[in-house]
Hints:
Bound molecules: tryptophan, zinc ion
Oligomer: single chain
Number of strands: 31
Structural class: alpha+beta
Amino acid sequence: MRDAAPQTIRLADYTPPAWLVEKVDLTFRLDPEATHVISRIAFRANPAHGGRGDLRLDGEGLRLIRAALDGIPLAAGNFGTDSTGLTVPAEALPGDAFTWEAEVEIAPAGNTALEGLYLSGGMFCTQCEAEGFRKITYYPDRPDVMAPFSVRIESEMPVLLSNGNPVASGAGWAEWHDPWPKPSYLFALVAGDLVAHRDTFTTASGRPVALNVWVRRGDEDRCAYAMDALKRAMRWDEQVYSREYDLDVFNIVAVDDFNMGAMENKGLNIFNSKYVLASPETATDLDFERIEGIVAHEYFHNWTGNRITCRDWFQLCLKEGLTVYRDQQFSGDMRSHAVKRIEDVLQLRARQFREDNGPLAHPVRPESYIEINNFYTATVYEKGAELIGMLRRLAGDEGYARALDLYFSRHDGEAATIEDWLKVFEDATGRDLGQFKLWYSQPGTPRLHVSEDFKNGTYTLHFRQETPPTARQPEKRPLVLPIAVGLLAPDGREVHPTTVLEMTEPEQSFSFDGLDARPVPSLLRSFSAPVILVRETSTEERAFLLAHDTDPFNRWEAGRALAKDVLTRMITDRADPGPAYLDALAAMAGDESLDPAFRAYGLALPSEDDMAQTLHDAGVVPDPLAIHAARERLTLAVARHLSSLLPGLYASMETPGPFTPDAAAAGRRSLRGAVLRLLTRLDLGAVAERQFADADNMTEQLAALGCLLDAETGAGQDALARFARQWGHDRLVMDKWFTLQIAHAAPERAVAVTDGLTGHRDFDWLNPNRFRAVIGALPMLNPAGFHDPSGAGYRLVTDWLLRLDARNPQTTARLCSVFETWGRYDTDRKAMIEGELRRILDTEGLSRDTTEMVGRILGA
Ligand code: TRP
Ligand code: ZN
């Protein structure tokens, strides 16, 4: 059956629910093929709704067995069902308050979409955000309906979990009660043969909390880091935001089949096992860092998301932008703020700027959607977090703290909006945020053009802001831009410390006087606003900032800009790199006063995708193969230029003793890995081979393996085989094995390598991690191979997206974004990509998720 044309949902159409829920009782009789869900829901008329309306309950794919109102079975003529739910007309309702009771049957075993109740590795688990609860039972599945839940689970599985606190349990059953009113998207249930890594936490006010990380048998020795991160996150939220945990238990469960990273269900966070399980032998430093960040993120949602939730899904950034901002702050406090900011901006530019400058551009608070799952985007999350950072810069640290205190006290227990959020800042600081609010509704990345003059000791910066038109929004208005600026004297001293200039006009100038000589400006320090800075800057000035800037972010940024200038010339004019960049890089790499992690980021060249976007912005049609070749040439030139420094640096960055995942040790390994990549260009993998043989941790083993593949000597293939023998039993490590081969394949072989791996017996394509590790790796980690002039890369990815769409629309639709940059390329490539996108759209029975994504990418 094909549904009617999918509906567009609009923010402007919001109406409060006619019926509120007083409390919910659920009983689950679990069975893989036929689970029965019995619900008792106490409804009461919403005084905020004008008059008593119909009772509309969402429900999809449910077999209704019985339903009753106040104990009286619902007669067939008194309600109607359709493909998205059930309606009882107002006349058939008993009064202003009544109890709905129903029993439905669902089949978790056949649920490959991983939304609602499903099975993963033999355990039952749920994923309800955004609209998965309606696949479990009939309910007003919208976030502004909040209620306390009681849950009874009946199953032979030994471990039975749900939200809140455990109430009672016996052989084959368990009961849970969550006293905190919550929307249905935060409901969770887990049943399986699980083991716990246990700990306890005492809150600031002295309440004990039992902490458990639940995993499959055999994984229990890989939970310590996640547990440690959880306890640090709990303490940090008390100390920095005065937020305490509010239940007797906090459970985390790791599952192998999961569409995204993790989910903040109240008291029962469910995680993709990739973001829980870690041991030195199996997880890289980057894995440890992500685990720390995601454990914290989900924990922080307990206040920003759960206690205060969203009125509707248009307000998604209310919880996600703020929670990302909070997890970034946390990671900065745990590690290094300078390095964290570099990582966050790299990510923002690679994902959010890419999105904001293409056909999928949308506001941080979208105004319409067809499938809400398609709006869990870099714009909502990462740009949403940047908006919080700007608010803080404008309000000051104390103003921010006052605003947040007010937010928590004013809106606890509510489903709030962006208007509510901005109002607490206005009330706490006395500022008018009317213009700032545009950041939430205006998509596109602003360009900030800068020029300057110097006269009689006065230095003036002239700014002009302009946001290019985006899909469906041609006209742009000026935004509030906090521009952090410092000035350096020609001898490298800072003559003006960081000040935040507030730009509100299309064009605006700011002066600094009393200067002896023309200063060098350090603009947009710490990346104080998510904009693209446009300014003619000489190589000398960039090298000067790389050597002298006191702002670590801008120091890195100067090196980055130098690298981009050099690469651009190498691509467009086939120029040589020239000495300025290479000398500056050598000085930076050897500067022992600099954090090794920072130096590692300094040595990393801009990605091929970043260069493609940079060329496109400059009006040049990017050739992915030419970009790849130039980047290879530059890597070799860097290796040669730094050749005398590399062996010593490699040796000095060794981390003796047992592995520790802390930032200092990780930073040393990161620099050592960057040095090894360069060394490999000169020694054909001799050092890498030794490192591969000796490594006692995954960071170093994997780094060495990547280098051996780059060296193309045959040692790489041997090492791959050895790696597979060592780790063939381990799903998470084998994901890396699949990905690495694709990432390091020469462009002309990348499609064949990917295609070959799809025939591997361990290519379990229904597992989202594995699918992304193989099909996602080609476009994301080997763009030159993906954009093969034959179009074979586009065809391969399209074939697999179509295959997955029939089973898992959510993961398919997300991956469609690999095509979002198609407008950058030459006519032939564009025509081939367009052909593939049309082939997707023309497919019978295509999901709503993928239909919306591909339609938007095509600009329909
Ligand atoms: N709210 C989750 C987070 O940010 C993410 C999320 C949304 C999610 N929808 C999901 C996770 C579907 C898994 C599946 O942490
Ligand atoms: Zn989140």
